[in-house]
Amino acid sequence: MEKRKWLIVVAIIILLIAGYFLFFFNKDDNVASVTDDSKTENEISDNENTETVNKEPITFEITSPEEETFKPRQARMWKAELKNYVNDYGTMAECKWSFYLNENNEESLYQQQDGRAVLSTDGENSCAFTSTFIEKVGKLRAVIDLNVTDASGNVKENYHAERSYIVQ
Hints:
Blueprint: H1 2-53, E1 59-64, E2 69-70, E3 76-83, E4 91-103, E5 106-119, E6 125-131, E7 138-149, E8 155-167
Parallel strand pairs: 2-8
Antiparallel strand pairs: 1-3, 3-6, 4-5, 4-7, 7-8
């Protein structure tokens, strides 16, 4: 029994020593692979710069709700999308929604909603919220202004979209 304990202790010591040497030998391999990865990242950024020139134009539109007619107090997802946007990750944007309702041939501001969004080249750049706030019938005009801001909060770019609906 005593010999068995010593064998286990010796085996653990041998494993620790082997692990120590493997750690240092693998460390050199990791340095080589990090260098290889950085070359790949440079190649990727070169490809992105090439793609930027060939990108489609930036479009901004209200994409939801999709149907033109809906009922009052019906839950709706309001969503506007900025497509083909190219910029650094983490660019902030302010979303300013305005809803104008035309009751009895007179359009008036019915509701406003503000929000924020994070924009990136690879992500889905959208401003969205869900609400049941439309409680009256009439012609509804949804307007959104998207102000892209820098880190200091200064407006760099503006986008505008609007869409009409019927609430009945």
